[in-house]
Every structure is written in C-alpha cells, then in structure tokens.
C-alpha cells in the first residue's frame, strides 16, 4: 500500500516536472523488444527527456527527436512503439541492423520532417506509411534492401528537399517525381529501368548511375525502345501575330518575313523532290524497270542533278501523272467536300503553325482560297498499307467535336495529313497567350462549353469509335467561334509511330497519366487522366508543366491542386481571370471535383468518359444543352476564308 502510494507520488512528481509519460512508455516498449548495444541504457529513474538519443520539446511534454545511429539495434521495428511518438519530428535509426518492413503505424507520425533509415537491412516494398508523412523534408532509405518499384505516391511528399534511395534493389521505371523544392535526389545503384522522367533530368548522372537499364536525361539516350522523354511542350509561340494588337512591330514583320522565307524554301525542296522522283520513275519505266516509286525516290541532297531540275508546271504535271494512283493525295471519309490535289497543295502559300510531337504543321492557303492545315509527319514507322488502314479508319470517324482527317499522302520520304483549318486557334493559345495584356480572357461560360465539347468528342472516340486519343492537351483542342463546336485533334495516331515506347515520349509531359510511364501504352483510362488535367488547366489557368517558362520549376498540376485543396485553400486554385465573374463558385467546385476524379492515381477508379460528360452536363443543370454540335463540321471548311475579326492575323492553330 505504502509502496503504491510512493509510485503514485513519483508519478505526480515526474509529471509536474514535465515528463512525456505516454512517449516514455512507447520508447521503453521499443527498446525492450529490440536487441541493442549496452551503451543504450535508459534509466527508469531519469526523465525520458534526458535519455541517450531522446530530445523533448521546451515544455518537456513530448519527445520530438529520437536519434539512435549505430546503436546496435537488431531486427524489425516493433509495431505499436515508435508509431506512438506522435510529436516526433526527427527519427534517425541509421547504421543499425534493423530489418523487415518499417511498420505501418509510422504513418501516425504526422509531424515528422526527417526520417533517416539508411544503412540498415530493411527489405520489401517501399514502406506504404511513408507517402502519408506529408511533412517530410528529408527522407533517406539508402543502403538497405528495399526491392519494389518506387511509387508515384512519393509525390505526396510535397515538402521534400532531399530524397535518397540509392543502394537498394528498387526496380521498374522511375515515376515522374515533380516535387518543386527537391534539391537532392539519388537513386544510384538500384535495378531501375526505362527512361529518366523529364522532371528528374536536371539531376546529375551520378544520381542515376549503377542502374544498368536506366537511360535518357543525364545518361545515354534511350534507344530504340526507350526514347528519352520528349522535351516539355514548346510554349505557344509568343509571336506578336497571335496578339490582338493591330499594329505589327518591326520585329514581327521581320519574323514573318523569315518564317515565310523558310516555308518557301521547304516547299521548293518538296517540289524539287517530287520532280526528281518522277523523272527517275520515268527513266526506270523507259528501262522497263518495275521498282515501285517509293524505292526509287532518294534523298534530295544525294542527287547530282538537283540544279538542273526545273520546277515548271509541266514537270509537276508529269510528276503527278507518272505517279498515277500510287502517290497521290487520298481523301478519306467524307473528304470534307474538298477538291484539290497534291499539285494544288504544293502551289499553296504556306505558313508554319508549329512544330509538334508528330511533326510540323503548316497552314496552306490554296489558290482558290481554301485554307487547310498540312502536317508533315516525322518518324512514321509503319508500312504504307498499315498507314493507309489506320488513316482510313480514323477518317471514317465523324463527330462535330473531333477534327477529322480529310486527306493523306504517303511516299517513302514524305507523309502528309490534311485537316480543316480553324482560325480561332487552340485552347492553349487562347488560354495562355499574352496573359495580362488587355486581351479578353476566356470567360467561365466559354470554358465550360469548350470543356464539354472536348469531353463529348472524347466520349465519342471512346464509345462508338473505340479509339484511344493518346495525346490530349490544350493545344490539341481547337476552337471555333461557337464554343460548343470546339474539336479535339491528333487522335489515334500512336499506332503509326511504331514502337510502343514512343507513345510515352509523344504524349505531352504534364498530361501523361502516371501509369503510362510504366506500361508505355495509352488507354481509355489514361485519356481520362489527361482530360482531367485539361479540366484543371481550364480551372486554374495554369499550363501543366509549363511553369518553367516563368523561371519556376515545372509543377505537376494534379498534385499542385491536390496540395492546395488539402490545405483548404480551394479558392486559391482557381484562375484569377475567373474571379471577375459572379455566382460561378459552385460550378467551378463541381468541375474541380470531376477533374480530381479523372486524375485519380489508380486507373480503375477514374470514371469513364460517358460518365464524365454526364456529370459535366449535370453541373450546368442543362444550361449548356445536351445536343451534339455536328453542324460545326460542315461550317468549318469555309471558315478560313472569313478573316479573323478586326483583321488580325490568325492565331497558332496547331500542336506546339
Ligand atoms: C509550452 O507551454 C506554453 C505555456 O506553458 C504553451 O503556450 C506552449 O503551447 C507549450 N508548448 C508545447 C509544445 O506544448
Ligand atoms: C496509429 O496507427 C494505427 C494503424 O496504422 C491505427 O490503428 C491507430 O489508430 C493510430 N493511432 C493514432 C493515435 O492515430
Ligand atoms: C497522401 O497523403 C494523404 C494525407 O495527406 C493521405 O491521406 C494519402 O493516403 C496519401 N497517399 C498515399 C498514396 O499514401
Ligand atoms: C535482400 O533480400 C533478399 C530477398 O529479398 C535476400 O535474399 C538477400 O539476402 C537480402 N540481402 C541482404 C544483404 O540482406
Ligand atoms: C523493367 O523492370 C520491370 C520490373 O523489374 C519489368 O517488369 C519490366 O519488364 C522491365 N522492363 C524492361 C524493358 O526491361
Ligand atoms: C549518389 O549516391 C552514390 C552512391 O552512394 C554516390 O556515389 C553519388 O556520388 C551520389 N550522387 C551525388 C550527386 O551525390
């Protein structure tokens, strides 16, 4: 009885002096279950705050740091011990012989900012508790025996400045880690493969060495199956032609002149080439040769008689005639009601619209006034027959919110696709072009309509057409004067670009679903992810991974939004340009929720497009209507002949 009273007194005494009672129990439970060096003697008579390796806060009411480096600790960390130190900010257990998986209850250490577990024998998967420790700034798991993939969820650790995973057996490909403040990073000496994501390419090669199958970025380029990730999308050219100012500066005029010159040169080369191949064909025929024209056509530069080739109309006529049915412009689907041939196209005046992942786009104005977009595809890797089958199939897809392929041309050295030209430009140029310079911003109603139009186009691709888009981004959403008739372009082209690896490099950084990096295949669900990013872009006014233009580091848009929303600053995510419109918060928050569902990390938990469209239609309560704007399809072909309002030059309308 007396003894018990004494204990009670002692207890009161200790608590009065400030003793982290529950933390003390947790520490004792840890040490009693973990073999350790005799150096670590935690005396029951002393306050836990004075024990070796333990630090408390100023009030001595909680343990804030536990440092037991090289303390001879052996075996697994027992569950229900360290996970109870709820105020712990620093945990260092480096250079011991701890093994197994760090326990799941470490996820309770919600204020932990430094975790040092390097030089142990930990094994198994990347500890699932760690992505929940969102306050972490330093994480060191190096020199252990971890062996899973590095999860994309490390992006959850938005405050991380140092991430050290070297000397383990981590495998699979590197996720795109896009943590803005990350300044130290090391994954050397693991079993990683695949390409280094663009977000990590800034770190030196010594951070990646010792992974035999890793490539790209600072290491050797990936080939042939793992092309290095394409550079982040080129920003919409900031040429003054896209701006609403009516007075062109001298700079602009020089720019236009130079561009025009380059285009002229290119067209001349194209012309020369055609004439050449025609001549060879003719001479072959004379010799009775039966070689197909594709094989006969050689690169322009190799030919000795380039200088003697004239580019007169007779020659072109001879060229097209001799090529017969073999190398002509082939119209697909409805053909858009166009009637011109390759000759007309070659004679057209052309202007470069942009260089994109599939090739360079030109705006071509034919002599009779029709304007079309011609894309010169690069790196086509399929046979003529497969190319034709693919393009013919895509040409059959007709929907008001999809930009149809009108015609194609295939020869050995030149592959062209012809599309309608939409003078209003792309969503990207309208959303991001010349911000803050007195331009009329896209208002909420227009954004909502464009989003819905793009959604309907994609739902049609996924539904009746069964085609994966594979390259959804704001520069592939082309606008018409009627926002309900906005159209998606560049869909379904992945199959003609050969190795599946290139699907990844072609899909725009920032829109690419995390799993695509690993599977290297775009799917319906990865399209939904990209569409979600597009919605976030409309809501935030921020271009995914283009923040670098402004000198900042690229930001993963979904993650940025997640982090802001999590901190309950929801209002902060929205585009300031939208703040001037009244009574739209509710719709914006609803669209934000749909977008967040689309960018779920797990593909299966993303809704499908039909569902997304239904939810978007519900937002506006039928305000936006549910009919499909098929009329836009026909209207578009003569649209280019109407000058853009105010006589300003057309905007860039292509893949940047
Ligand atoms: C320490 O005590 C002071 C006043 O006694 C209090 O304001 C402060 O919040 C306490 N700090 C912690 C970490 O408990
Ligand atoms: C700690 O984590 C475990 C399992 O991870 C959970 O059951 C428990 O409720 C958590 N405790 C606290 C105090 O959060
Ligand atoms: C990311 O962090 C949040 C807590 O902020 C957590 O709820 C979520 O589970 C974490 N995600 C993963 C994949 O661990
Ligand atoms: C690492 O783990 C593997 C099994 O996963 C085991 O065979 C190997 O011995 C471990 N290496 C060390 C150094 O513990
Ligand atoms: C990369 O590693 C993962 C896991 O080890 C494996 O499944 C995948 O096939 C590897 N890819 C290549 C191209 O080696
Ligand atoms: C990354 O870790 C490896 C192995 O520990 C080391 O050799 C390399 O220097 C480290 N890289 C940097 C940049 O410190």
From TrEMBL:
Keyword Membrane: yes
Superkingdom as given in the UniProt entry: Eukaryota
InterPro entries documented for this protein: At_inactive_RLKs (IPR050994), Kinase-like_dom_sf (IPR011009), Leu-rich_rpt (IPR001611), LRR_dom_sf (IPR032675), LRR_N_plant-typ (IPR013210), Prot_kinase_dom (IPR000719), Ser-Thr/Tyr_kinase_cat_dom (IPR001245)
Main subcellular location of this protein, as a coarse class: membrane
Stretch forming the signal peptide: 1-18
Protein kinase domain location: 347-619
Protein's recorded name: Protein kinase domain-containing protein
Protein's organism: Dendrobium nobile
């Amino acid at each position: 009885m007396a003894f018990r009273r004494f204990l009670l007194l002692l207890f009161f005494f200790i608590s009065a002096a400030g003793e982290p009672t529950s933390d003390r129990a947790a520490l004792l439970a840890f040490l009693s279950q973990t073999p350790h060096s005799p150096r670590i003697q935690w005396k029951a008579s002393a306050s836990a705050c004075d024990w070796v390796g333990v630090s408390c806060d100023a009030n001595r009411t909680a343990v804030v740091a536990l440092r037991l480096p090289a303390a001879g600790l052996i075996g697994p960390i027992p569950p229900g011990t360290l996970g109870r130190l709820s105020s712990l900010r620093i945990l260092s257990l480096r250079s011991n012989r701890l093994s197994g998986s760090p326990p799941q209850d470490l996820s309770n250490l919600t204020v932990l900012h430094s975790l040092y577990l390097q030089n142990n024998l930990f094994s198994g998967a990347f500890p699932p508790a760690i992505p929940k420790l969102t306050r972490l700034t330093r994480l060191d798991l190096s020199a252990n025996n971890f062996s899973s993939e590095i999860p994309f969820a490390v992006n959850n650790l938005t405050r991380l400045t140092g991430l050290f995973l070297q000397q383990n057996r981590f495998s699979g490909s590197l996720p795109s880690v896009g943590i803005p403040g990350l300044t130290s990073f090391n994954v050397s000496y693991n079993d990683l493969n695949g390409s280094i994501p663009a977000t990590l390419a800034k770190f030196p090669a010594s951070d990646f060495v010792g992974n035999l199958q890793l490539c790209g970025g600072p290491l050797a380029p990936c080939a042939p199956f793992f092309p290095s990730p394409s550079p982040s999308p080129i920003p919409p050219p900031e040429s003054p032609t896209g701006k609403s100012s009516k007075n062109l500066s001298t700079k602009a005029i020089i720019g236009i002149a130079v561009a025009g010159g380059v285009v002229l040169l290119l067209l001349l080369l194209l012309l020369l080439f055609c004439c050449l191949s025609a001549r060879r064909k003719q001479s072959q025929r004379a010799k009775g040769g039966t070689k197909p024209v594709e094989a006969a056509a050689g690169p322009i530069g190799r030919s000795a008689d380039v200088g003697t080739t004239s580019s007169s109309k007779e020659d072109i006529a001879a060229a097209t005639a001799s090529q017969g049915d073999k190398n002509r412009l082939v119209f697909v689907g409805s053909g858009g009601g166009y009637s011109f041939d390759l000759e007309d196209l070659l004679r057209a005046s052309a202007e470069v619209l942009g260089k994109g992942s599939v090739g360079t786009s030109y705006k071509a104005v034919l002599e009779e006034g029709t304007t079309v977009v011609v894309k010169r595809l690069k790196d086509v890797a399929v046979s003529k027959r497969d190319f034709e089958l693919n393009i013919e199939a895509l040409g059959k897809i007709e929907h008001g919110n999809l930009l149809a392929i009108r015609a194609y041309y295939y020869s050995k050295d030149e592959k062209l696709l012809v599309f309608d030209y939409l003078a209003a430009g792309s969503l990207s140029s309208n959303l991001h072009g010349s911000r803050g310079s007195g331009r009329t911003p896209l208002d909420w109603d227009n954004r909502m309509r464009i989003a819905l139009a793009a959604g309907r186009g994609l739902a049609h691709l996924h539904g009746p057409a069964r085609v994966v888009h594979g390259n959804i981004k704001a520069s592939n959403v082309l606008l018409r004067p009627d926002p309900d008739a906005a159209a998606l372009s560049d869909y379904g082209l992945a199959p003609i670009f050969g190795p599946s690896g290139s699907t990844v490099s072609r899909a725009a950084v920032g829109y690419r679903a995390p799993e695509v990096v690993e599977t290297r295949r775009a799917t319906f669900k990865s399209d939904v992810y990209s569409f979600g990013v597009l919605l976030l872009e409309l809501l935030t006014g921020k271009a995914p991974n283009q923040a670098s233009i402004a000198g900042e580091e690229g930001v993963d848009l979904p993650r940025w939004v997640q982090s802001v929303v999590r901190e309950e600053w929801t209002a902060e995510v929205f585009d300031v340009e939208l703040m001037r419109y009244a009574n739209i918060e509710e719709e914006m928050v609803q669209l934000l929720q749909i977008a967040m569902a689309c960018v779920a990390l797990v593909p299966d938990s993303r809704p499908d497009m039909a569902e997304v469209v239904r939810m978007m239609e519900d937002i506006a309560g039928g305000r936006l209507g549910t009919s499909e704007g098929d009329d836009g399809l026909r209207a578009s072909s003569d649209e280019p002949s109407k000058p853009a309002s105010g006589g300003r030059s057309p905007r860039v309308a292509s893949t940047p």
